[in-house]
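During the reporting period the student researcher (J.K.) took over the structure-prediction task from the postdoctoral fellow and processed the backlog of single-chain submissions. One of the processed entries is reproduced below for the supervisory committee.
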Amino acid sequence: MTVEPLNLAVIVGSVRDGRFGPTAARWFAGVARTHPDFRVELVDLLDHPLPLVLPEPGGRPDAGTAEVRDALGRKLAAADAFVVVTPEYNHAPPAALKNAIDWFNAEWNAKPVGFVSYGGAGAGLRAVEHLRHVFAELHATTVRESVSFTNVWELFDDGVPRDAAAGEAAVRVMLDRLSWWGWALRAARAARPY
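J.K. obtained the following structure tokens:
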């Protein structure tokens, strides 16, 4: 019997003009695609513009919002694991990322989450600390290992970190942790839905 690889959704969390997120996400996804346990999909929140106003409980969003929500929701529901690529804005994650997280609930439940963060001196780590609390509330499991880039604009050339070997080593450790949790939680969800 063939076992399907884990579906890993790599989420680009920033939608600002001039953002660095897609560069970091493409690099990370390229490394992740070499890991035998994962099938990788890039999910750019810029392609899924959700409004900031959530409908009332039981309310229905307008047709355009429902279409965007459903498309993103299908991608999140299909994932067995997530990696969130995030900068830090004012010591917190981007509003678009937090908004996208808040539009969903069950799609995140009982799945592992890893982080790639970037920025100036703080490397986006304060945003990651915020997100760990948010994902705990959604019953997702965050892995301790993460990948972070300080002064990211000086660290990448042509979409690749200057010290690619060190970056890839950190990615592989995180992927191994995500894999362990991904397989365990996929089996648990199959045996007993969350």
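The committee noted the following: The chain has one domain: 6-53+65-191.
J.K. will present the remaining backlog at the next meeting.
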